[in-house]
Design brief:
single chain, alpha+beta, 6 helices
Amino acid sequence: MTVDELGEVGIERMNDREIREFLTSRGVGVLGLPAEDGPYLIPMSFGFDGDAALYFTFLVGASSRKADLADRAERARFLVYDARSAFTWQSVVLTGEIDEVPPAEFEAVAETMHNAWRPALFEDAELTRGVSVYRFEVADRVGFKHTGLPPGFASERAEAGSDEY
């Protein structure tokens, strides 16, 4: 379906302000890195600087496929979504470059990680493993949302005398 066709069923394109607010209110998404055998997809917590960059913390050991692929990637994608119901959802897809942040800059970007969701096991793991921070510079962003019943569905239910959804 085209974007115009999606609009006919109640799906709206998010504007830049809505995308920024959505990213600020979320802390986890799916990072897509190019790999030989197809995209490497991994759930990642993230911090958003409120403008044009996301930050990820990678826990790395002796080797890390995620870090290796990120270091080689010219472009990456990141998906953030929230699906509360079949009729109420939002999603944002970001495309950009991903690069490791030098350790000297960790403190400067630490504030951006305030909204990052992190599993409890990461807190313990950070004490025993290496940590790398990566910056995802957003080059392109697109977001869509559906925040209600599709056109015609609500009026059909009202005609039937039902106010329950």
